[in-house]
Structures are given as structure tokens and as C-alpha cells.
Design goal:
The structure is a single chain. It is built from six helices and four strands. The chain is mainly alpha-helical. It has two domains: 81 residues, no CATH class; 34 residues, no CATH class. A hairpin with a 5-residue loop joins strand 1 and strand 2. Helix 1 crosses helix 6. The longest helix is centred in the last third of the chain and has 28 residues. It is rod-shaped and about 80 Å long.
């Protein structure tokens, strides 16, 4: 008899062999799916929900940034309006992918979708095992 199997009494004097409801292979498969699907869901949702980005050319230097601290919002907006460049999704993605902060943010934002995918895979596996055991008991 295998280690992970348990004997449980059934109706009458017969014993049936049943697997436990939580097996290591279910967890490993669920973890693999979560690692692959979670970041993908986050990356796709980030890209589809993105509207417009603004880039300043030439970039704002530290000295200019300190000077802008003394300006009003309207003055700062007027000063930056000349250098403002609106970017499309593709331009933003092309410029952002090369920087590590983009990938760090993708990884940070993928935690919740990955956990959700993992827990739902575990739950579906558990429900499927219960259904199979119920069907075996019914026959």
C-alpha cells in the first residue's frame, strides 16, 4: 500500500482506499500556474488600463526641480508645457521595458493576482477531488 493512501470504513464491512484531499502535486501545479498567469494578468491589465503618459524632453534637472518648489502650480505647468511630450501606449511600453523599475513594479503588482490564481487553483483541485470521491462512493 502507498504511503499517501488512507483506509476508511465504508458502508458494511468493506474498506475503501481513498486519497487525502490535499496532495503535493496539486500545490505544485497550482503554484506553477500562479507564477505564470499572475504576472501575465498584471502586465496585460497594466497595459490595457494605461491611458496617456507624459515625458519631458529634456528631463527636469535637480536644480530646476528645486526652483519649481517655489512656484505655484500654474507657473510650474506653464514652465513644463514647452517640454511636455505626450506618449502613446506603445511608446511608453518601448521606453519603460528597458528599466528595472518597470519590472520591479510589475513583480510587486503581480502578488495579488498570483495569490488569487494560486488559491483558486487549490480550491478547484479540492472541489474536483471531492466530486470524484463522491462519485466513487455513489457507485
Amino acid at each position: 500500500m502507498q504511503k499517501n493512501l488512507v483506509l476508511s470504513p465504508s458502508v458494511g464491512s468493506r474498506w475503501i482506499v481513498a486519497k487525502p484531499t490535499c496532495c503535493p502535486e496539486t500545490g505544485v501545479r497550482s503554484l506553477l500556474v500562479a507564477v505564470l498567469v499572475g504576472p501575465t494578468v498584471d502586465l496585460v491589465s497594466t497595459f490595457t488600463l494605461f491611458r496617456r503618459a507624459t515625458k519631458y524632453d529634456p528631463p527636469v534637472s535637480e536644480a530646476e526641480f528645486r526652483q519649481m518648489g517655489n512656484m505655484t502650480v500654474n507657473e510650474m505647468d506653464a514652465a513644463l508645457a514647452k517640454r511636455r511630450i505626450k506618449m502613446t501606449r506603445w511608446d511608453w511600453l518601448r521606453d519603460s521595458v528597458q528599466y528595472s523599475y518597470f519590472w520591479k513594479q510589475v513583480a510587486r503588482d503581480a502578488i495579488v493576482p498570483s495569490c488569487g490564481v494560486f488559491l483558486s487553483c487549490i480550491w478547484i483541485g479540492w472541489m474536483e477531488r471531492r466530486r470524484v470521491q463522491w462519485l466513487k462512493g455513489a457507485t
